[in-house]
Amino acid sequence: MTTPHWLFGDQLGPHFLTPVHEQGPDRAAPVVMIEARSVFRRRRFHRAKAHLVLSAMRHRAAELGERVTYVRAETYREGLRRAVGDGGVTVCHPTSHAALRLVRSLPGARVLPARGFLVSHEEFAGWAEGLGGRRMLQENFYHWVRERHDLLMDGGRPAGGRFNHDHANREPPPRGATALDVPGPYRPREDDIDAEVRQDLDRWEREDGVRFVGRDGPRRFPATRREALSALRRFVAHRLSSFGPYEDAMLAGDPVMAHSLLSSSMNLGLLHPAECVEHAERAWREGSVPVNSAEGFVRQVAGWREYVWQLYWHFGEDYRNGNALGHTRELPAYFGELDADAVTARCLSTALAQVRDTGWTHHIPRLMVLGSHALQRGWDPAAVTDWFHRCFVDGYDWVMVPNVVGMSQYADGGRMTTKPYTSGGAYIHRMSDLCDGCAFRPTDRTGPRACPFTTGYWAFLHRHRHRLSGNARMRRAVQGLDRLGDLDDVLHRERQRGDGAP
Predict the structure, then answer these.
(1) Of 67, 87, 112, 366, which residue is most buried, by most CB within 10 angstroms?
(2) Angle at CA 68, nearest 5°, toward 66 and 69?
């Protein structure tokens, strides 16, 4: 008999069912999908995320029809037992350490190589070994991926004469604008499956003690392959050309700017990263997109996303426990509850409201507002990682562990990035309109209008002065402490703020 193939809820695209180099699954293999309620009992996920994942799984099951056995069970083990009994299954390499442990503990499971990425684990290991002990820099990895996959290359040289076009991709928002002048992103239409999902989530909250955070408005992100392809085509045709210059900019009234909103589709497996970067490259070659915008998008997908995926496995399971800065403070209630109304600082309140309402913000609010605030406050990096995982529709263990532990919270002590990513209010003021009308002033370190990001920045540098003074990229910033005649007042102001909402 043909061995059934088990699809996890983030393996929903056609490339997870296509035989590859004798690795299966069998072309006519029955498919097993398991909806495990225990996942939602263990952790308090964003309601919009729970809706998206369940909607995507149920839509995929509907597409597969009689080929799939779809089991709703309390646990994966129970569901697999009901689906195949003592029989074996094939399964593509899961995307978390916990899921890999589970499938490897099943006597009848055969784990196939990972799919949904440009670089295999073996290829990455070969690249890392070839460094001869030198640091695994993301920029070098990105160049290697571009060359290996012939991405945005022009006669052996990078498109536009350079690999990195960041110099053209750091523009603040247009002066006086409340939104970018670009067509809006693709928006899916809900259907009967979405209605069923919403009814089930209501019942679980009412009867089964399952709890969520955030709001579940109309579904904003693709739940099917067809929707994801429509979103990709719309982004490339109408939004990609404006993406590059403003990819780091923020506007209070335009949370999506010109971003693709494709991360959840790639992380659900609905889109393969190869087709995403190929669409962007084709648009550049056809002359409809400038090279800096195409390169900025390719960098996010073929550079950063691949790098994060590989480091998650390369660093190993204990990496998540890194806490090089010794941060142990608990996340305050306003943050955990996404209570944006409790926050006075306009930048933080706006970012929290975006997460509360949609389960998403783009990468700069994540890193330089939400993550920077957590870093300055000294919150436990494991708790911060868990928060990002639960509260973002595109958040998965493999994504958030390196992104938060390694980059956002610098909890690995610099294994992944060369410096902590945090700043005072001046950066936010330069790259956004979020300081306009705020009760705080980005230039004020002390006094009643002292910006919490500005005081927090200097207090962070002071707290970790000994460690950061040896960092070449932080040395000048740390030396700036000696030029602050009001440092004692800054530190006093920061102590007064405590864990209250800024």
Answers:
(1) 366
(2) 110
